[in-house]
Design goal:
Number of strands: 0
Structural class: mainly alpha
Order of helices and strands: HHHHHH
Shape: globular
CATH architecture: Orthogonal Bundle
CATH class: Mainly Alpha
CATH superfamily: lambda repressor-like DNA-binding domains
Strand content: under 5%
Largest sheet: none
Number of helices: 6
Radius of gyration: 15 Å
Length: 90
């Protein structure tokens, strides 16, 4: 059972959500949203999410952002998705 826990811990640490490049991309998404003076609630409404908690979980790295969601956020933020994706390439 201990080996199983160690394997789970290794998998958790290697997930994309824990990579520095992913964190940099999320940080930039937050920065741009705040520069535009958009609240999480307003963005969530524009995307069509029921409330702000979904975006909050993405921004606090509790949930991974998928490519469709990234494209939606980029459009709302007035930037090409490639702008944010570029942070993954550094």
């Amino acid at each position: 059972m201990r080996q199983e826990n160690k394997t789970q811990n290794v998998r958790a640490r290697t997930k994309t959500i824990f990579r520095d490049t992913y964190r940099a991309m999320i940080h930039e998404l937050i920065k741009v949203r705040k520069e535009l003076k958009l609240s999480q609630t307003v963005v969530a409404q524009q995307v069509g999410w029921p409330d702000h908690t979904y975006l909050s979980k993405i921004e606090t790295l509790e949930k991974r952002l998928d490519v469709v969601e990234l494209a939606q956020l980029a459009k709302i933020y007035g930037k090409p998705a490639a702008f944010f994706i570029s942070f993954l390439e550094e």
